[in-house]
Amino acid sequence: MDHHQLPPTLNAIEAPDSEWFFPKIGLVAIGTISQSILGDLAWRLPSLHRTMAIHTDANALRRVKADCKLWVSDGKAPPLTPQASQLLAQSLIPDMAEAVAGLDMVLLVTGMGGVAGTGIAPVVAQVLREQKILTLAFATLPFNFEGNRRHQNAQIGLQELGTQVNALLPVNNSDLERVVEENASLESVMNHAPLAFIQLCRSIMNSVVVEHSNVGIDFEDLRHLILGQTGDCAFGFGAASGVNAADAAVNQAIHHIFLGQSRLQQASAVLVAIEATPDALSLRDVRSIMLSVGQQLPSAPPVIYSTVSATPEDGHDFRVSILASGIARI
Ligand SMILES: Nc1nc2c(ncn2[C@@H]2O[C@H](COP(=O)(O)OP(=O)(O)OP(=O)(O)O)[C@@H](O)[C@H]2O)c(=O)[nH]1
Ligand SMILES: [Mg+2]
Question: Residue 113: which region, alpha, beta or left (left: phi > 0; alpha: psi -120 to 50)?
Fold first, then answer.
């Protein structure tokens, strides 16, 4: 044998398939928002292990597609307050625990301010925390025109939810009025933020499931560094094609209404997820995107990035999502 040639076993990396870690990710949608999330948005996520819908409204639950559905009810009258739905939810903790068992991460989606999501989401989050399942919660806050009562309930619900989850990503529905056209359909307005969240998760999931990415994210980094910060999260995104697409996309993301430069500047950790068509992605683009984000971060917090070579779903050449954590509540 040529002495330069090592015996094959010395160079071989012993990594049987069973030792690869592919996190099992579930999506739990609570209340009315489950209609849009589980209607046609969640299927855009790759490698979703389980979907679950939870609601007080049996008819609404019948209409959604989910691996598992939980009706929060005493079988008589529907609960009329968030407190009443919370009490009912508490009696279903064993069912919730069974439904989420074995998952490594959950994307929990709800709308705050009504009866179902506000009361039930903190209970689900508590179950997830007890099982040490990494939880990223996305919660919408009511439009301004929905009235004070709803806003007060929403703030209470958000507060309760925030203490139970690893990371909370609130989005103000009123901000939508500034990003969508005045005469856009109600459905497209309502879907805008949940869709953006799903697309953010798609980028993240493509990055933690190694086979889809060229620069991936370590699941433990996601758990401890990005989603483990004290404070809330915010995200922004941008998409562009053609000349200077990378710069255009990152600038849109930095200035996106859900994120806003001022919130990005407060971040104590940042994740930048880049999706681009394989022939559009160059090292120069990645460097330029990272420099643009870095310039917004005076205290130089840790920044993780991932790149996925795959045409973004909306057909653009580039999609950049920025998730900032450790920021003050909206
Ligand atoms: N952007 C967006 N916001 C939603 C959607 N569904 C609900 N919301 C918001 O979430 C808040 C709570 O939703 P509700 O339907 O009032 O509450 P619920 O949790 O379903 O409970 P109920 O009072 O039983 O209907 C609403 O005030 C809306 O602002 C949605 O699909 N998209
Ligand atoms: Mg509702």
Answer: left
